[in-house]
Write a structure and sequence with these properties.
Blueprint (H helix, E strand, L loop, with lengths): L39 H12 L4 H17 L6 H8 L3 H13 L3 E4 L4 E4 L1 H4 L7 H20 L2 E8 L2 E8 L12 E2 L7 H9 L2 H8 L15 H14 L2 E4 L6 E9 L5 E10 L5 H21 L2 H8 L3
GO molecular function: DNA binding; DNA-binding transcription factor activity
Organism: Azospirillum palustre
Protein name: IclR family transcriptional regulator
């Protein structure tokens, strides 16, 4: 599946191999500035290159590429289709498929000789895992927020310096983005990225940003460290960050961090919308409402404390 910059969560995707981004699938396009992920071809080329390595590391890379292809496919796949998608020969593909089947990640449909992801492959987390509990508990909050603001609302968790989409809510007429679970959009140019930067101390911030000038995405992208620091200083005072046309022209993201009980931040709430609808008053109204809701979440959502422990906050 090909998914561009806005990735939405699925029950499976939330924790499936948090150590790397999920692969994409052809045909689906996205538009939000908070997620920039590699194309399917790039991912599979990398997997193929990794697969050329000898030993367990190469075997693991090939197996994960096969699992990605099957999980992301819109329908069960034949052996030849899996081999073509992963750029592996059929004998290697068959051997690894059997290993995945024995491990419980893939099932072979006897009536069609096709391969599909198993329940374990689709939904690896137990239903009562804290992250799944948080999704259930927070969904009504997100739906109400999206309805009141008439915009798309996204719940993002922080895993160290990475960002993971946990849930998404939309209102009639709002954007219809598709978020990949692992957000890869620029930290200096996306709503969730700026919110994460705001949660870090200056030393951590410098480490994750790397050397300046930062990459340019639009004429509005902040590429200078001093300018970004000033933008974050203002954001800290008002309680929310804004990425206005900074990753994609025409799209604006506003985000507020969700506090923890030890003065940290477990994640953020993000609103995305068309820039044409986002004048200063509208942005301020959305930002203030996000701050209000985010501050209440630790008291409303009992699972948030457990999730904070899961993600190390």
């Amino acid at each position: 599946m090909t998914r561009k910059n806005l990735d939405t969560s699925s029950g499976r995707a939330q924790v499936r191999r948090l150590g790397r981004p999920a692969a994409h699938s052809p045909g689906r396009t996205t538009t939000q500035g908070t997620a920039m992920v590699k194309s399917a071809d790039e991912e599979r080329t990398k997997a193929g290159n990794d697969g050329e390595r000898e030993g367990p590391a190469g075997t693991l890379a090939r197996g994960l590429a096969i699992l990605d292809a099957i999980v992301d496919a819109p329908q069960p796949l034949m052996l030849g289709e899996v081999a073509a998608l992963t750029r592996l020969d059929q004998s290697t593909t068959l051997r690894l498929l059997r290993t995945l089947e024995d491990s419980g990640y893939v099932v072979r449909l006897a009536d069609s000789k096709r391969y599909a992801p198993s329940p374990k492959g689709l939904l690896p987390l137990p239903l009562m895992h804290p992250i799944n509990q948080l999704r259930r508990e927070s969904h009504s909050v997100l739906i109400e927020l999206a309805r009141n603001l008439r915009e798309t609302v996204v719940l993002v968790l922080y895993l160290s310096t990475e960002r993971m989409v946990t849930d998404i809510a939309q209102a009639p007429g709002s954007l219809s983005p598709y978020y990949n679970t692992w957000l890869q959009g620029p930290l200096h140019g996306s709503g969730s990225g700026k919110a994460l930067l705001l949660s870090l101390d200056p030393e951590q911030r410098a480490a994750v940003l790397g050397p300046e000038p930062y990459k340019v995405y639009t004429p509005q992208t902040i590429v200078d460290r001093a300018e970004l620091d000033e933008d974050l200083r203002v954001s800290a005072l008002r309680g929310y960050v804004v990425a206005h046309d900074e990753h994609h022209v025409g799209l604006t993201a506003i985000a507020a961090n969700i506090p923890t009980w030890n003065n940290g931040h477990v994640g953020c709430l993000v609103v995305t919308g068309h820039s044409r609808d986002m004048d200063e008053a509208r942005i301020a109204g959305i930002g203030e409402e996000l701050v209000r809701v985010a501050k209440l979440m630790p008291y409303q959502l009992g699972s948030l404390r457990s999730v904070a422990h899961v993600v190390g906050k």
